[in-house]
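Troubleshooting log. The previous structure file for this entry was overwritten by mistake, so regenerating from the original sequence record. Sequence copied from the archived sheet and checked twice against the printout by T.R.
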Amino acid sequence: MKATLDFGLGGLLLLLAPALFALIAAAIKLDSRGPVFFHQRRRGLNHRLIEVFKFRSMKVLEEGAQVKQARKGDPRVTRVGRFLRATSLDELPQLINVVRGEMSLVGPRPHALVHDEFYGELLESYANRHQVKPGMTGWAQINGFRGETETHEKMRLRVEHDLHYIDNWSFALDLKILVLTPIYGLFGKNAY
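Regenerated output below.
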């Protein structure tokens, strides 16, 4: 049922998205130099490496051990990028990952590899997040745990919410998260 929702709704959204993608791409190109899209290797289901796609929101493209979380007022984030990140529109290209079967619409958010390793060493339960496909949005995000995790406690709480989602998954829970995500995307906090 989850795969049907991902492929069906993800595919439909991807089919409806070209005009919005073109508008966002034009805004990115007018605002700053560099590519429209950003991709980064992250861990998916069973720790498998996947390339996650996003709209570029920063002036600097980081990979490997160089990756730093965006912070409030981060000078690397472009003007358009600030809007894209605040509304989560920078995540829309991950619909490609969903349709390819690498991600789900709902699940624990994938982290940069260097952060994945760090949190895996810090929190014993962190690796359990990889029992399911990573998602474009998740239980943690609609409960306020999105964006920067500047303290160990914030990451512990995010992981706790991710594991709660995994342990309590249902079609109804996915629908609830999908309905609430746009509200939190537009009015939520912690996205820099």
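DSSP finds eight helices and four strands in the chain. Archived copy saved in two places this time.
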